[in-house]
Design brief:
938 residues, alpha/beta, Rossmann fold, 25 strands, elongated, 2-oxoglutarate dehydrogenase E1 component, EC 1.2.4.2, thiamine pyrophosphate binding, oxidoreductase, ODO-1/KGD_C
């Protein structure tokens, strides 16, 4: 529609003053969905100038103001004439404002080295919007631009836009769909033109923090030349940024802050933020260590805890231990924060703040980053938002350039998937860094969402101090060699402002170096650590044989069984679920043996009744992948959920079960972080199929199995990994038992393969009641969940005993036994069935229910009566190179009598965990059972 035609159309509409609100609402609807408005209105709105590169215009009150004025004017012909002249210019000014909000960051002064080659953005040019120098002194309505005036000359509007969006902060936020969030950010940025307003004292404090950041690196470089320290030099502003975050968070109510970061700058953060004693760090550089501290780890992996004084009181700080696998620490930090929130009864993250520090290549390259962003707003994993800082040294990991490390303009583009605002900031402008930090934290605390600060800096040395960066980045490092350090740049700025002179600047340097020489804490805010976290002392120094009592009376179990097998009359379960609960009611009445799902449920009920908190996550955790748990009854009338385990007792512990996102790595890391911060809760992660744990192998290798040895970190996390060969193909059979057994040493974890409901009941209770906090890895069943022989009595549950080894259950004449078969897991029932059918009274079957720590004492007690036997067999379903055979046969050999023989019965070695054809599986299974029992082939 041309403006000439528009005049006639306007005259035919009801565009009068009373309809101004109606026009505004139409325009809002148009911006959300153009097809939602009438074709004539859509044609009118389509005529408004568009911003190049922007698909949907933002919802601006300034544009609505033009319609409001048009609606008030009863002389419609005059309105159209104005639209062709001054009003058209007004709209273009508003579009210019919009363009800077969208794309101003692309012309921001972000690179301290000045090497970035930013492409020309025509949307930011006056000429692109039909504006000229002749318009610069004309006065226009600023619309929603937060500059303190309703109208300004274009010259002042343009100047404010350039200063706000093209200075040392490049703000990306227009990808956010929430109008409230965008307006909030506009208010914070535009009202101060993205300029910090620091007092003289604050500036001097900021300078001292830069002195500390620079001073520690130089001190270490001179005292330990050539030693790896992954220097922060170039990214010095990280130190004042973190201290501002912690101080401001404390002022706003935070009681705990958990930080996760990789190597770069970690030693600096330990000393200059958390207050680690420099003399201790120097001893570590000198190679001194505590002989009683396990295997230990390198300096730049170690964690630390301290207290930090803030205007709102002392805040407890924790720097998470982190291996070399870069971004994997992020979900660990979030899990730790969630545990602290739950302990404090905090549901929105106000009292606990997670801070994760990333590398520019890692945040773009590591898949766990996407997984962690995806967790951030889900019920099971939300922590009220994470402040994510990127130490962007512009060099990918070791030698790569940005074009080799990502396919996006910025390394932070991944954060747009959760509509997180992103603040790119020049690290050589520390005041801009402080402002970006303040806005980022306030956004997180206001909207409970993730926020990203991209600290654009450089790396003064190579990847480590023994590296030679000129070999691959000659131009960059020629520039870096001549570039003054941040402390020098800021000192000159303060001198120009008359705040202090060269003598004052040198005095601060000398005082910091003297403090390092003295070896004491150099952080003024450091405070002696009070008890902020749960008490771990009951679990320290204990081992598997520590005494415990997990027995219950039959009356207690029967009472619990009745409570957790019932649900309110107004709840309508699905028919199959109803049948499961009817069966459980029959079991509770003593008229039916206990099955696997009910035994597991009873274990949880017995713990929550006594005040234990339980947290279970997994991709089908509520229902159970194999339709056995049904901890949540989904009402068929309204889809609401009822959880019997949340209604066990009025004073019970918290029971939470969540269907997790479709992730293993981030979810398992989150649960590890939760369990390391909360020993009084039972924390369980269930894989949909056991082999899915493959996707979380880095968590298992670098945290779960070795965290205690490397860092002294106890963790009672339980893994339920469905395992068993039912002919479902390679990827639905094996939880890779062999991998866990290979990782077992130093009594670092338990690996169990329970075969009865009573065993799983007592195993779960033992994991929590025993005063030991180490991981429990369970090869949990699939077909056994409904196997008619896999049942237990109430009395077996009440015993409170998990049997590490179970002897032959049939009545055999021991002296006639000439073969003993060892096995674990589901294959036991195949062996038992075949042995009974063939009436083999000379073969005893012994189940090893705990493969690690191997139960030598229990085995010795059972094998004693088979001392006359010469033929012992280990039988497994898995191929010979998998399962328990290779990793555990030395234990089997140690258990059998001297002179006896041990042979293997199972599938041949295979590159694949299992065959893909049921018929082939059945043939193999039948053959291995016969082989184990000594039966001849058909």
């Amino acid at each position: 529609m041309h403006y000439g035609n528009m005049q006639a159309w306007l005259e035919s509409t009801q565009l009068a003053g009373a309809n101004a609100t109606y026009v505004e609402e139409l325009y809002e609807s148009y911006l959300t969905d153009p097809q939602s408005v009438d074709a004539d209105w859509r044609a009118l709105f389509d005529q408004l100038p568009k911003v190049e590169g922007v698909d949907v215009e933002t919802k601006h009150s300034e544009v609505r103001e033009d319609f409001r004025q048009a609606a008030k004017n009863t002389h419609r012909k005059q309105v159209v004439v104005q639209a062709e002249s001054s009003d058209e210019k007004q709209v273009k000014v508003l579009q210019l404002i919009n363009a800077f909000r969208f794309r101003g960051h692309q012309h921001a002064n972000l690179d301290p080295l000045g090497l970035w080659k930013q492409e020309r953005v025509r949307d930011l040019e006056l000429s692109h919007h039909g504006l000229t120098q002749e318009d610069m002194d004309k006065v226009y309505n600023v619309g929603s631009l937060k500059v303190g005036a309703e109208k300004l000359p274009l010259r002042d509007i343009h100047s404010a836009l350039v200063k706000t969006y093209c200075g040392s902060i490049g703000a990306e936020y227009m990808h956010i769909t929430s109008t409230d969030e965008k307006r909030w950010l506009q208010q914070r940025l535009e009202s101060v033109k993205a300029t910090a307003n620091l007092t003289a004292d604050a500036k001097k404090k900021l300078y001292k923090e830069l002195v500390a950041a620079d001073g520690l690196e130089k001190y270490l470089g001179s005292k330990f030349p050539g030693a790896k320290r992954f220097s922060l030099e170039g990214g010095d502003a990280l130190i004042p940024m973190l201290k501002e975050l912690i101080s401001r968070a404390g002022a706003q109510g935070a009681k705990e802050v958990v930080i996760g970061m990789a190597h770069r700058g970690r030693l600096n953060v330990l000393v200059n933020v958390l207050g680690k004693n420099p003399s201790v760090l120097f001893d570590e550089f000198a190679g001194k260590f505590d002989k009683g501290n396990g295997s230990g780890d390198v300096k730049y992996h170690m964690g630390y805890s301290s207290d930090f004084a803030t205007p709102g009181g002392d805040v407890h700080l924790a720097l998470a231990f982190n291996p070399s696998h870069l971004e994997i620490v992020n979900p660990v930090v979030m899990g730790s924060v969630r545990a602290r929130m739950d302990r404090r009864g905090c549901t929105d993250g106000t009292q606990a703040l997670p801070i994760t520090i990333h590398g520019d290549s890692a945040i773009a390259g590591q898949g766990v980053v996407q997984e962690t962003f995806n967790l951030s707003q889900t019920r099971a994993f939300q922590v009220g938002g994470t402040v994510r800082i990127v130490v962007n040294n512009q060099v990918g990991f070791t030698t790569s350039n940005p074009e080799d490390t990502r396919s996006t303009q910025y390394c932070t583009d991944i954060a747009k998937m959760v509509q997180a605002p992103i603040f790119h900031v020049n690290s050589d402008d520390p005041e801009a860094v402080i402002l970006a930090t303040q806005i980022a934290l306030d956004f997180r605390n206001t909207f409970k969402r993730d926020v990203v600060i991209d600290l654009v800096c450089y790396r003064r040395h190579g990847h480590n101090e023994a590296d030679e960066p000129n070999a691959t980045q000659p131009l960059m490092y020629q520039k870096i060699k001549k570039h003054p350090v941040p402390r020098e740049i800021y000192a000159q700025q303060l001198a120009n402002e008359g705040l202090f002179d060269e003598k004052d600047a040198k005095k601060a340097i000398d005082e910091y170096r003297a403090a390092l020489d003295h070896g004491a804490c150099v952080v003024e805010e450091w405070r002696p650590m009070m008890e902020h976290s749960v008490d771990w002392s009951p679990y320290v120094g204990n081992d598997w044989d520590s005494p415990y009592d997990a027995s219950l009376t039959l009356e207690q179990i029967t009472d619990l069984a009745k409570r957790v097998s019932s649900y309110p009359e107004d709840v309508t379960p699905q028919s199959r679920v109803k049948k499961i609960y009817q069966d459980r009611q029959t079991m509770a009445a003593g008229d039916k043996l206990i099955d696997w799902g009910f035994a597991e449920t009873l274990a949880y009920a017995s713990l929550v009744e006594n005040g234990t908190n339980i947290r279970i996550t997994g991709q089908d955790a509520g229902r159970g992948t194999f339709f056995h748990r049904h901890a949540v009854i989904h009402d068929q009338k309204d889809a609401s959920g009822y959880q019997p385990l949340q209604n066990v007792d009025k004073k019970q512990g918290r029971f939470e079960v969540y269907d997790s996102v479709l992730s293993e790595e981030a979810v398992l890391a989150f649960e590890y972080g939760y369990a390391t911060a909360e020993p009084t809760s039972l924390v369980i992660w269930e894989a949909q199929f056991g082999d899915f744990a493959n996707g979380a192998q880095v968590v298992i290798d670098q945290f779960l199995c070795s965290g205690e040895q490397k860092w002294g970190r106890l963790c009672g996390l339980t893994l339920l990994l469905p395992h068993g060969y039912e002919g479902q193909g390679p990827e639905h059979s094996s939880a890779r038992l062999e991998r866990f057994l290979q990782l077992c040493a130093d009594h670092n974890m338990q690996v169990c393969v329970p075969t009865t409901p009573a065993q799983v009941f007592n195993m779960i209770r033992r994991q929590h009641i025993r005063p030991v906090r180490r991981p429990l890895v369970v090869m949990s069943p699939k077909s056994l969940l409904r196997h008619p022989a896999a049942t237990s009595t109430m009395e077996e549950l009440a015993s409170g005993i998990f049997h590490d080894v179970i002897d032959e259950i049939d009545v055999l004449e021991t002296e006639k036994v000439d073969r003993v078969v060892f096995c674990s897991g589901k294959v036991y029932y195949d062996l038992l069935d075949a042995r009974r059918k063939n009436e083999l009274n000379n073969v005893a079957i012994v189940r090893i229910e705990q493969l690690y720590p191997f139960p030598h004492k229990e085995m010795d007690e059972i094998i004693e009566k088979y001392n006359h036997v010469k033929e012992f067999v280990w039988c497994q379903e898995e191929p010979q190179n998998q399962g328990a055979w290779y990793c555990s046969q030395h234990h089997f050999w140690n258990s059998i009598p001297a002179g006896a023989n041990l042979t293997y019965a199972g599938r041949e070695a295979s590159a694949s965990p299992a065959v893909g054809y049921l018929s082939v599986h059945n043939v193999q299974q039948k053959a291995l059972v016969k082989d184990a029992l000594g039966l001849k082939e058909d």
